[in-house]
Structure formats: C-alpha cells, structure tokens
Design brief:
Layout (H helix, E strand, L loop, with lengths): L13 E5 L4 H12 L3 E6 L2 H13 L3 E6 L5 H15 L4 E4 L18 H28 L3 E6 L12 H21 L4 E8 L9 H9 L9 H12 L10 E4 L25
Parallel strand pairs: 1-2, 1-4, 2-3, 4-5, 5-6, 6-7
C-alpha cells in the first residue's frame, strides 16, 4: 500500500487523525497510511473509526481505531495514549473533529441557541485545544512534529449561515498561529487547511449549484483534495511552512462577488466606449 507520493514518504511516522471516521478525516487517514505512516483513527463514533481502520489494514497499511469525544478530557487522553501504546508516540496530528451534526441548527445569531453555540465551541475549538495541549509534549519528546488543523473558508469571510461554526473555525486559526509561534523552536510546525464546500450527505442540491456557479474550478471539491493538502503540510516537504492557512476551495474565495453572475459580471458586459 505504501505510496511515497509527491509530498514525501512518511515511513516510520505516527499520525493521529480526529474525526477520522468521517469523509475528510477518513481520506486523510487513508492517504497518510498509504504513504507509510502508522495511523490512529479517532472518532466519537467508534464503529466509523473501526470501519476506516479496517479498510486501511486491508489495503496493506497500519492503523488502529479509538473512540472518543474530543471535548472530553479523558477521551482525549485515551486517544493519544492509544498512539503511544500502539506505536510509541505521535509525529503528525490532523486536528479534524467538528460539530457537523449541529450545522443544521446553526443559523441567524439572534435566533441561535446556547446549546448549539456551546456544543459547536466544545468540539470545534475547546476539543482542538485539549488535543493540542495533550499532543505537544508528546511531539517535543520525539524531537518535534506537525499539527494540521482543519479550519474552513467560513473562518475567512462572512456568510448568511453557520455563525457558531464560523467562529469556532476562526478561533482555530488563531490557535494555529499561537502554537506555531510558541513551539516552533522546539520542532513543532502548526498549520491549517481551510476547505471550501466538499459535498456530502448534508449538502443541499440548490446550494451546491450556487457554489459551483461561483467557483472557478469547475467541479465539486473532494475529500481527497483536502487529504492531499493535509499530507503536504504534515510532510518534510513543508518543513519551512508554519503558522499558515492553506485555502483549498477551488478558487471560491479568490474573486469578486460579480463572478458567476452573467447579468452583472463586467466580463460579460459590452465593452466600454
């Protein structure tokens, strides 16, 4: 199964992926294993984590599964102790867990409930902090490591929906920069990926159509697109990159709002005389 790939081989590395039973985390876990890493697939849904880990092993990779809610201190300790006991430590951490199950209840600020706000922050930001606080000493003990946080383009621009999710992801960008600054001289790099829309079971067809009309790359994003970005940032090929946010959105945030509107776009208007 080993595929050293353009981002560099990861043979001998140990990786932990939270939210590893889902689409994005699962794609990353699979790719890191294919490039030679031993992977701990962590997810609040143990069955999903086990399914992904078994698929990795069946393909010739090395993986174990562990269940746990990243918002719970004991569960976080269990996730990383599993990595230490199974593989001897941690070199790569993909901090990917998010409260996606709350997204449909995340709406206008004036109508947002405490439950949705707190639940989103508990998993998306507090959980990320707990994991980083736990893994940093483990990485320092091995001479360093790479943390890649999954943020979002929602952290970069305003939108009409998911303000709690957006705020949590924006906080994650600040945490990324703080970790990169505080622990860089101890061998730890910390970066973030900011995915655009990656269609899934919760994606409404009309939303997807509107996004694609405004996205220069003329296709939907795939979990593998994000996995490739994470694998690059976690690899030695990105050894001089830290404290950064890599946007992976098909160009969605790289243009003016007039793009994709055939009525108002200056590209489609008659030439000025």
């Amino acid at each position: 199964m080993t595929d050293n790939g353009p981002a560099g081989g990861m043979i001998g590395k140990v990786a932990v992926v939270t939210g590893g039973g889902g689409a994005l985390g699962g794609a990353t876990a699979t790719l890191l294993a294919a490039r030679g890493a031993s992977v701990v697939v962590a997810d609040w849904n143990l069955e999903s984590a086990e399914t992904r880990a078994k698929a990795i092993v069946a393909a010739g990779g090395t993986a174990v599964a562990v269940g746990g809610d990243v918002a719970d201190d004991d569960a976080v300790e269990r996730i990383f102790s599993t990595a230490t006991e199974a593989f001897g430590g941690v070199d790569i951490f993909h901090n990917n867990a998010a409260a996606v199950h709350l997204a449909r209840s995340d709406g206008p600020v004036a109508d947002l409930t405490d439950e949705v706000w707190d639940g989103t922050m508990d998993i998306g930001l507090r959980g990320a902090f707990l994991c980083c606080r736990t893994v940093i000493p483990l990485m320092i003990a091995r001479g360093g490591g790479a943390i890649v946080n999954t943020s979002s383009i929602q952290a970069l621009i305003g939108d009409t929906w998911v303000p709690a999710y957006s705020a949590a992801k924006a906080g994650l960008l600040s945490l990324t920069r703080s970790i990169a600054t505080q622990y860089g001289r101890q061998g730890i790099r910390c970066n973030a990926v900011c995915p655009g829309l990656i269609p899934g079971v919760r994606t409404e067809p009309d939303m997807l159509e509107r996004i694609l009309r405004r996205q220069p790359v003329g296709r939907s994003g795939r979990p593998e697109d994000i996995a490739e970005a994470v694998a690059f940032l976690a690899s030695d090929a990105a050894g001089f990159i830290t404290g950064q946010a890599l946007v992976v959105d098909g160009g969605l945030t790289g243009h003016m709002p007039t793009y994709g509107d055939p009525v108002t776009s200056p590209l489609d208007a008659p030439a000025a005389r």
